[in-house]
């Protein structure tokens, strides 16, 4: 069986794609898998590191604001459609899977025109314009939230949840071992703070601005992933010098980070939301306002409305982020209540369910 997986751009698209590829290989070791991504994006490094071959397209998104880059968009789209058709004709996939991101659109468009079975894995509670267009042409759409028939044909929708990394399926890491891996050697409560795979400036600013509060509550540890592009700036700051802070550019072993944490502060990307629901950690969500259709706020509200997480708007993070997480850590009943509701939203079998739908399309 030959599977073509297309998409990427951010960790929220790349890691679910790799999780699907791994599960396909588990089910059928003889299956061949090819990735198609966007040149210069995260997938061009992470996919080969996971052991898969990837081809990059010359493609990027259309800027909603006036930008000179938009003049290139028609040429990039035409180039990607032409290259995508050649890739499909050469590779001859039995099924094409789109996980979102720039490269997903041209590849799924060509595959559907060539009558090859297609499936979209939509991670967010509010889909982007590309998947809304493709929904009319693909065979199946796997979703992670209720009410997606507002955007997609109901007969194509399959509620599966989002695929997450294999190492998070069942965290059995010793908590002390996990904390020791981050240089923490005490039994104090620990907060994990991260802004996605690239980091988030507003979250970083909110930590730095809470220096006095973090110093005063020295009984609380912080694992703070600032992002590679922000590491030089924040690793030398006054907050980084505090003994209860561990500053990192990137966290390779998120299973260790989650195992070490008592609570989490993070963005509200689809992958992060799915991971939190799976690991059952009380969380404070800071949705990014800089994403299409403000879908992170919609993702966060799906948890907030089910009383499964707390949310602080990005604009209020500097004043409220650290006070909110400290208040949460001091309220054991609230933590238990959030976790209880989170457990109802977790989808531990999401990856295998999506893979089963992929195999059905091939059959």
Give the gist of this structure.
With 363 residues, the protein is α/β, with parallel strands linked by helices. It has helices at residues 11-27, 43-49, 73-91, 104-113, 129-134, 175-181, 201-208, 211-216, 231-234, 254-260, 270-279, 295-304, 317-329, 332-345, 350-362, and strands at 2-6, 32-38, 53-57, 95-98, 118-122, 140-143, 157-159, 190-194, 221-225, 245-248, 263-266, 283-285, 310-311. The protein has two domains: 2-166 and 349-362, Glycogen Phosphorylase B (Rossmann fold, 3-Layer(aba) Sandwich); 170-345, Rossmann fold (3-Layer(aba) Sandwich).
Walkthrough of the structure:
The chain has 363 residues and is α/β, with parallel strands linked by helices. It folds into two domains: 2-166 and 349-362, Glycogen Phosphorylase B (Rossmann fold, 3-Layer(aba) Sandwich); 170-345, Glycogen Phosphorylase B (Rossmann fold), CATH 3.40.50.2000. The chain has 15 helices and 13 strands. It has helices at 11-27, 43-49, 73-91, 104-113, 129-134, 175-181, 201-208, 211-216, 231-234, 254-260, 270-279, 295-304, 317-329, 332-345, 350-362; strands at 2-6, 32-38, 53-57, 95-98, 118-122, 140-143, 157-159, 190-194, 221-225, 245-248, 263-266, 283-285, 310-311. Strands 3-2-1-4-5-6-7 form a seven-stranded parallel β-sheet, sandwiched between helices. Strand 4, helix 4 and strand 5 (118-122) form a beta-alpha-beta unit. The radius of gyration is 21 Å and the shape is globular. The N and C termini lie close together (10 Å). 48% of the residues are buried. The model has no long low-confidence stretch (mean pLDDT 90).
